[in-house]
Design a protein that fits this description.
The chain is an alpha+beta fold. It is built from five helices and nine strands, in the order βααβββαβαββββα. Strands 1, 2, 3, 4, 5, 6, 7, 8 and 9 form a nine-stranded mixed beta sheet that branches. Helix 3 links the parallel strand 4 and strand 5. The chain starts with a strand and ends in a 17-residue tail after the last helix. Bound molecules: coenzyme A.
Length: about 200
Amino acid sequence: MEIRITVTTENDFSNTEYLTRDVFWNLFKPGCDEHLVLNKLRKSHAYIPELDLVSWDEDHITGHIISTKAVVMDKNGFSHEVLCAGPLSVREDLQHHGIGSALMLSSIERAKALRYRGIVLYGNPGYYHRFGFQDAANFGISTSDGLNFSAFMVLELFDNALQNVTGRFFESEAFKVDEEELNTFELKFPFREKGPAKINLNL
Ligand SMILES: CC(C)(COP(=O)(O)OP(=O)(O)OC[C@H]1O[C@@H](n2cnc3c(N)ncnc32)[C@H](O)[C@@H]1OP(=O)(O)O)[C@@H](O)C(=O)NCCC(=O)NCCS
């Protein structure tokens, strides 16, 4: 299978939303909201077109990753710009073939080329440590609520890049979704039955 990665164009917006919905449906909660988050991120100030990436096998979309602008706010109220990675989606029938890794590695390389200092994400440490992500506590970075846990991770993009970047992490407001906007957005998609979450995140 070919794993070709390109920057997403507007022609791929809808297909990548469908992919994200398919992949996340009933995964972490009944239904999902990651496809709406993706839609909102693309309309937000946090959007970085160069870090909206899609993977292809010939002319079929196989996966997608987006990283967007976020900040770490230090105790003096100064904002340090970082990236927030995700959602990351690989077509269910094509998982475990290296597509997710290729997308993440490509995203990291492109973020370095754009001179971003670090990437923050919430995810499975067993998966993300292989790319160099570490517990955010190691960098003195906590969630916006001042919390730390193993699923909250940071990747430093060059040596000492995050040396003076400590404080609380704030991702784009686009990640905040209310039920009403989700229900309205869902009307654009074919009906799908909600079921119990397959994975309990325990954040
Ligand atoms: C998480 C996710 C993006 C990973 O994508 P993926 O393409 O399956 O990831 P990779 O193939 O790079 O790695 C997954 C596993 O496949 C293995 N693998 C990679 N290439 C392989 C290959 N050619 N042959 C066999 N196995 C391979 C990796 O070693 C890894 O194994 P491990 O985690 O059990 O050690 C994908 O599973 C997904 O979309 N999940 C649902 C949504 C989600 O959870 N997103 C992330 C939110 S935090």
